[in-house]
# Entry
Amino acid sequence: MKHLHMLMAVLAIVLFLYQSYLVLGANRLAPRAVKIANHIVYALVIVSGAVMLMQLLNANAPVQWVFAKIILLIAAISSSIKAFNPNATSGQRRTGILIAAVAYIGIVILAFTKPDNLF
# Structure
């Protein structure tokens, strides 16, 4: 399950980078297939993460960093929605991409460090 989760996380970041390139560089939106793939990847990240969270909770492991990752994922998804909205202005797109990028960086840092006493 861990490998599936990591693969889907990498795919989510790659899809985000591709959509960001299209919006900022080519000034166009992603094709429909990319949007569908994005939904599938997010769903698999959430499901595989929930399964691994249950395993951590059963082992009584510290999971504060997992809740921080969940909050950052919600921030990344919501700002991506605004950034890749066809009716968004240029400023909204840039701000949404910046917020999502910072959230993804935070998620990756938390995934590698797994701090015990986050809160």
Summary: The CA atoms of residues 81 and 96 lie 8 Å apart.
